Amino acid sequence: MKYLTDYANIFTRYDLNIEVARQSARKVAKDELLQKVADAVVKGDEDQAAVLTKEVLQKKSPMEVINEGLIPGMNEVSRLWDEGVYFLPQVILASDAMNAGIALCEEKMGKSMDKKAKVVTHTAEGDIHDIGQVIVNALLNANGFDVINLGADVPVDKVVEACRTHNPVMVTGTALMTTTMTAFPKIAAQLKRLGLAIPFVCGGGAVSEEYVTSFELGVWGKEANQAPGMAEDALSGDNWQAMRGKWNG
């Protein structure tokens, strides 16, 4: 009988060693110093991100560091996630690294980043798989939106109440199981009855474009990295029909 003696590659998928990612990551900043900041985010190195951010802040403005270093780094993480190079542990570490840099930039400015608008995010009732939502939250935060994070397994009524309370420009829902995505049209119907015609971006492994576009307010989110662009459209005044026409079909 043969016994397994080499365990090195059993958990490769979840390994935090980012050697593969280094080979797959792209240059995302024109400035060398800002590229180093972006690289620290891609590597998920919170300490290095903090050290480099402090260094770059001696030569660059806080908003330059955020918009041209930290955010591009997180956008690259999103791409690596979409292509199956990164998994949840790497995304969480990258988000922590980005947030460490943003905190230092805010300290330098003497205030928090001005928030553009609110976006309510949640994972569908009965679904605890919030991987997609974690990425959406990180990208929206990085791009200056005030994320009202309701978490996972959120009841329909709680989502609707959050929209009434916070008046967001957009609401997002994630589902990885077909049995839970049925909550989305229920949310949309309640929002419509209340006169809250908020673009409702729905995505996740179980969710198809055909399903989301079958009910009013629904806009299909194919990839997590589309969230900031969609939120910008909603902020600019695009209604759900316009957003569906742009992002779907």
Q: What's this entry about, in short?
A:
Helices cover 51% and strands 9% of the residues. The protein is of the alpha/beta class and 249 residues long. Helix 5 runs parallel beside helix 6.
Topology overview:
Layout: H1 19-24, H2 32-43, H3 46-56, H4 62-82, H5 88-109, E1 118-123, H6 131-142, E2 146-149, H7 156-166, E3 170-174, H8 183-193, E4 200-203, H9 209-212, E5 218-220, H10 227-235, H11 240-247
Parallel strand pairs: 1-2, 1-3, 3-4, 4-5
Helix pairs in contact: 2-3, 2-4, 2-5, 3-5, 4-5, 4-6, 5-6, 7-8
Keywords: Cobalt, Metal-binding
GO cellular component, one term: cytosol
Domain B12-binding: 116-245
Overview of this protein structure:
The chain is α/β, with parallel strands linked by helices. It has 11 helices and 5 strands. The chain folds into 2 domains: 32-109, Methyltransferase, Methionine Synthase (B12-binding Domains), Chain A, domain 1, CATH 1.10.1240.10; 118-248, Cobalamin-binding domain (Rossmann fold), CATH 3.40.50.280. Keywords: Cobalt, Metal-binding. Residues 24-117 form the B12-binding N-terminal domain. Pfam families: B12-binding, B12-binding_2. This is Putative cobalamin binding protein.
Key terms:
Rossmann fold; 9% strand; alpha/beta; Methyltransferase, Methionine Synthase (B12-binding Domains), Chain A, domain 1; five-stranded parallel beta sheet; 249 residues
CATH homologous superfamily grouping of the largest domain: Cobalamin-binding domain
Count of domain modules:
2
Question: How would you spell out the order of helices and strands?
Answer: HHHHHEHEHEHEHEHH
Mean pLDDT: 89
| Physical arrangement of strands within the biggest beta sheet | 2-1-3-4-5
Q: What is the name of the CATH architecture of the largest domain?
A: 3-Layer(aba) Sandwich
Percentage of residues in DSSP E strands: 5-15%
The percent range for helix content is 40-55%
C-alpha geometry: globular
User: Describe the biggest sheet?
Assistant: 5 strands, parallel
User: Alpha-carbon distance between the termini?
Assistant: 55 Å
Domain B12-binding: 116-245
Protein name: Putative cobalamin binding protein
GO cellular component, one term: cytosol
Domain B12-binding N-terminal: 24-117
